[in-house]
Structure formats: structure tokens, C-alpha cells
Design goal:
Length: about 600
């Protein structure tokens, strides 16, 4: 790092304006840590050799002795002194060797899970006894610990801190120190560092140090290294001081429209990925899911004002007249190769007119694309309606990042319906419930309960959980989770009540595979995993539409699993067991 950082304790522990430096002491395992084996009279390798020799020697002696008794017809329960000593030595050596290798080693051999996470034999109870939220029979095999093959890392004594911990962070250069002081004093704006320095990484480092000095708070836990700050300049984030890490899990494979998808999910909610994974399993074992794209169009709705409601109505009639569509479309489309106007719907409120433009946007999510086209039309309309006062390019009739009935009814982005037929035996074996219970719960919870609550597009169990996780992993705008999570989940018993038909209808999934956060390395890798990275040059828009279908399919899997967990009464127990930290929070010092 080019700019040094103060210790976390240096900023938080001050007295009379003077920083109090605390030290971090590194303790080497091999030199300073007292080991249990140090109390033995012999070195560990000699002690092990002794007990190994003793164990196999007494086993050989006893077997030889008992074989001789069998040959001479002597009762086995009659033992002499040497045999008593041999039995005692056997017990002692066995206890030592069992303790040396550990009970966990023996358990790992006995309770080792199957490597096949899609094994259809679900009759045997999971070793965990209570499923990880909704994720019965879908746990992955435990990975063998790798730390034993590595040299133990130095341990940090929690009560003592030493400046040695900061060796990897060099102090700021004289030039950087001068800039930091200028930022702290306010003579150099923090937002201008990238422009003035021409080095985004250095700018972030200087801004970070200045922030720590101004606030007196440490950013020690927030990573700075290992990120390409040039990639976010002017498009993703301003005035960066670091980045956060969110774990990414994989659910699936999800069989959707005859293809398998491994779905990346970025989340900090325990068991969410495992639950979705169980839903994917149920779908796969039942033959997969299918999806249909109903509509594809991003919207933007400016608000304009006139001196009278009559003039506002005149513009409404003009915009909705089919004879004027071709002219308006040509003006709208001239700013983009992919943005193509589809419809314009208008709403009058007194003297104000709201015009909701809808257009295709290729593989981009398309907010900027549609906004440019709308601006072209507004400029054009000024010629025939000079008394039109443009109040704002967005009048909330779009409607972006807010729950709105217009999105629920008309749709925004990609409108997708996804369905599957889950076989009755899969419902009982994998989902641990029955068809009738699921149908009844869906009616009373997702439909009736949501209606009583006055839900707007929320006729589902937890669609936003899956949408948010996939959006974060693939570089979508997380705020658009609001309207993208509009979903109605339907369940119906079919085939004389033996099987379950389940579907999710999502009218406003707003996704893209180019632009914004999709170009960041981590998010781009997740898109690549799904096979939808970047723009589809042969058929523009195909990748974004495929991503929307994957989102809907993942929601279908998540709905199946959570509803099954609730129907089976497993939700609370599994959340309490697997979605709670085991750390002793009282032992964690606040910085």
C-alpha cells in the first residue's frame, strides 16, 4: 500500500488529543506457545513409537496365548499374571492411541457423507438431524482440513498489540503526507483526488487515511488492496476507500428449459443457498422447469406541465395517436443502436402529464438508454408544444426502485413466468412434506395472507431473498430488487392430487449483462458461469433475457424449499441451529 494507515487502536484510544499507541504482540507457535507434549518425559515421536510397539506386542502375545489355549482345550477365562499384565497394557496403549488420533478422526470415517449430493435415496435421516433451514439431503461433503499440512500461522495475543502488525503497511511518503494533510484541512476536495493524481489506487489510499484522521475511527477491517479501482472510475462508485466482501455460494444445478445452470448467490444469510439448492434438486429430479418470456421493455416516464388540463390532454392524444407513432419512434431511436421504442402510455393529473415510454434495450438493463431516447422526444415536442414545461425526466410513473402497481400490472424490464411439476414422491422424499399441505399453505399464506396485508406484488414467500442474492453476484443494481421481486407463487395439486404444479410469475425483472456492475471482475465471472457474460452479438438481448429466466427459475426453487420447510414445521428449528453465529460476541473487542 502506498499510503500508510494508523493502527485501529491509535484512532480510538486518545487522551487529551494525543494518540495512545497500543502494541500487538505476535506469538510464534514453535517458540513461545507451551504445548501439551512438552510435559511428557520423552519426545513425542519416541512416546508414539513406544505405545505403537507396546500395542502390537501385547496383541500378538494375547492372540498367541489364546490360540494355544484353544489347541489344548484350556478355558479362555482362566488367565495368568502375564496375561493380566498384557491386557492392562493393551487397554492403556489403546486409550493413548485413540486419544492421539482423536475421536473426530474415527467419526469422520464412520459418518462420512456421500459424495453424490443428488443421491435419490433420501429415506435415511441426515446426519445433522435437523435440516439447514429448508435444505434437507442437499448438504455437500465435508472438505478435509488443509491446515494440518501448513505451518501454523503466528497467533495474536488479544491483550497486547505491537506496531509490528503494521510492517506490511509502509508510512505515507512526504508527498502523500502533504496531500493527506491538505484533504484533512479541506484545501483539496476528496472527490478530486483521482483527477489530480491520475492514480485511482493511490487516491483511494490517501482518501482512506484522511478519513481515518478526520473521524478518529479505524477502517482496519475494510480491505483496500486487491481491487481494480480504475474499473469503477466514472461508472460504479465515487470516492472509494475500500471494498466489502460478500461470500458467493452456488445453488444447483438448476434444470431450466432443458439446460443446467449453476446459480451464483451472494449473501450473508445462512442457509439461503442450501435452501435454494434443495429446491433445485426437487426440480431436477422431477424433470426440470420451463420458462416463458412474456414481455421485454424498460420504461421511463417524464412529467411535463401546461397552463391548463386541456393542453395536457391534447399532448396525451397526440402521443397515443397511432399516426404519430412512427415519427416519435424515429426521434426516440436515433440515440441508440439497441433502444427501440415499443409503446407510450400517458396519464393526466390536472395540468400535468406523465408519459410512460417503454423500449427494448438489448443486453443492457437500459435505464440510461431509455432516458436518452426520452430526452430526444422531449426536445422534439418543444417545437409543437412550446408551452410545455418539463418538470423532470422521471415523474415516478416509470416506476424505478419503488413498489408500484404500474410495474405489477404493466411490467417493467423482463416479464417471466416459470413453472414445474414436482412428483409426489419427490415432495415427500426431498421436500419432506406432502402436496396437500403445500397447496393449502400457499393459499393461506402467499395469497390470502398477502391480501390481508395489502401486499403489492408480494404474493410469495421470499422471492426477494433469491433476487437480491443473484443480483449482487451478477452485478445488477441491488436497489431494483424492489420491483424485480414482484412475484405471485401458485401451487395446485394435479394428477388426482398426486403431483404438484408450481409456478412463479414475475412481471418486472430488471437485469442486464453489460454496463454498470456487470463489468467488474467478480460479477463478470458469475455471469460467465451462467453463460451470459457480456452482449450477445448474434441476437442482441438474448443474454439478458436468459439471465431473467434464471432469476425466475431460482426463485421457483427457493419458493418450493421454504414453503416445504414451513409446511413441515422445520423453519424455526433450522434457523436457530444453522443461522446463528457460534462466536462469543462478548469476547470481541469494539474498535
Amino acid at each position: 500500500m502506498e499510503v500508510g494507515r494508523r493502527s485501529a487502536m491509535e484512532y480510538n484510544n486518545t487522551k487529551e488529543g494525543k494518540p495512545l499507541k497500543m502494541k500487538v504482540k505476535f506469538v510464534d507457535d514453535e517458540k513461545d506457545v507451551v504445548k501439551a507434549s512438552d510435559a511428557m518425559p520423552l519426545p513425542l515421536y519416541l512416546t508414539n513409537t513406544l505405545f505403537f510397539t507396546l500395542f502390537f506386542s501385547v496383541v500378538y502375545f494375547l492372540l498367541t496365548s489364546w490360540r494355544e489355549k484353544i489347541r489344548t482345550n484350556t478355558p479362555l477365562h482362566i488367565i495368568n499374571l502375564s496375561e493380566i499384565v498384557a491386557i492392562l497394557a493393551f487397554v492403556v496403549s489403546f486409550i493413548y492411541l485413540l486419544g492421539f488420533f482423536g475421536i473426530d478422526f474415527v467419526q469422520s470415517l464412520i459418518l462420512q457423507p456421500s459424495n453424490d449430493i443428488w443421491a435419490a435415496d433420501d429415506d435415511e435421516e441426515d446426519a445433522r438431524k435437523v435440516p439447514c433451514v429448508q435444505a434437507l439431503d442437499c448438504s455437500l461433503p465435508k472438505m478435509a482440513p488443509i491446515a494440518s499440512s501448513l505451518k501454523a500461522a503466528p497467533k495474536v495475543a488479544p491483550e497486547v498489540f505491537e506496531e509490528k502488525a503494521m510492517i506490511a503497511t509502509p508510512p505515507p511518503t512526504e508527498e502523500d503526507e502533504a496531500i493527506i494533510k491538505a484533504v484533512v484541512a479541506g484545501t483539496i476536495p476528496s472527490y478530486s483526488l483521482e483527477t489530480k493524481l491520475g492514480d485511482c489506487k493511490r487516491a483511494a489510499s490517501i482518501r482512506r487515511e484522511a478519513l481515518q484522521r478526520v473521524t478518529g475511527k479505524s477502517l482496519e477491517g475494510l480491505p483496500l488492496e486487491g481491487f481494480d479501482y480504475e474499473s469503477i472510475l466514472g461508472q460504479c462508485c465515487e470516492m472509494p476507500v475500500g471494498y466489502i466482501t460478500i461470500p458467493v455460494g452456488i445453488a444447483g444445478p438448476l434444470m431450466l428449459d432443458g439446460r443446467e445452470f449453476s446459480v451464483p448467490m451472494a449473501t450473508t444469510e445462512g442457509c439461503l443457498v442450501a435452501s435454494t439448492n434443495r429446491g433445485c434438486k426437487a426440480i431436477n429430479l422431477s424433470g426440470g422447469a420451463s420458462s416463458v418470456l412474456l414481455k421485454d421493455g424498460m420504461t421511463r416516464a417524464p412529467v411535463v406541465r401546461f397552463n391548463s388540463a386541456k393542453r395536457a390532454a391534447e399532448l396525451k392524444f397526440f402521443m397515443e395517436d397511432p399516426n404519430n407513432y412512427e415519427t416519435i419512434s424515429m426521434v426516440f431511436n436515433k440515440s441508440s443502436r439497441f433502444g427501440r421504442l415499443q409503446t407510450v402510455k400517458c396519464a393526466v393529473a390536472g395540468k400535468n402529464l406523465y408519459m410512460r415510454f417503454c423500449c427494448s434495450t438489448g443486453d443492457a438493463m437500459g435505464m440510461n438508454m431509455v432516458s436518452k431516447g426520452v430526452q430526444n422526444v422531449l426536445d422534439f415536442l418543444q417545437n409543437d408544444f412550446p408551452d410545455m414545461d418539463v418538470i423532470g425526466i422521471s415523474g415516478n410513473y416509470c416506476s424505478d426502485k419503488k413498489p408500484a402497481a404500474v410495474n405489477w400490472i404493466e411490467g417493467r424490464g423482463k416479464s417471466v413466468v416459470c413453472e414445474a411439476v414436482i412428483k409426489g414422491d419427490i415432495v415427500s422424499k426431498v421436500l419432506k412434506t406432502n402436496v396437500a399441505a403445500l397447496v393449502e399453505l400457499n393459499m393461506l399464506k402467499n395469497l390470502t395472507g398477502s391480501a390481508i396485508a395489502g401486499a403489492l406484488g408480494g404474493f410469495n414467500a421470499h422471492a426477494s431473498n433469491i433476487v437480491s442474492a443473484v443480483y449482487l453476484a451478477t452485478g445488477q443494481d441491488p436497489a431494483q430488487n424492489i420491483e424485480s421481486s414482484h412475484c405471485i407463487t401458485m401451487m395446485e395439486a394435479i394428477n388426482d392430487g398426486k403431483d404438484l404444479h408450481v409456478s412463479v410469475t414475475m412481471p418486472s425483472i430488471e437485469v442486464g449483462t453489460v454496463g454498470g456492475g456487470t463489468q467488474l471482475a467478480s460479477q463478470s465471472a458469475c455471469l460467465n458461469l451462467l453463460g451470459v457474460k457480456g452482449a450477445n452479438r448474434e441476437a442482441p438481448g438474448t443474454n439478458a433475457r436468459q439471465l431473467a429466466s434464471v432469476v425466475a427459475g431460482s426463485v421457483l426453487a427457493g419458493e418450493l424449499s421454504l414453503m416445504s420447510a414451513i409446511a413441515a414445521g422445520q423453519l424455526v428449528k433450522s434457523h436457530m441451529k444453522y443461522n446463528r453465529s457460534n462466536k462469543d460476541v462478548t469476547a470481541v473487542a469494539s474498535t
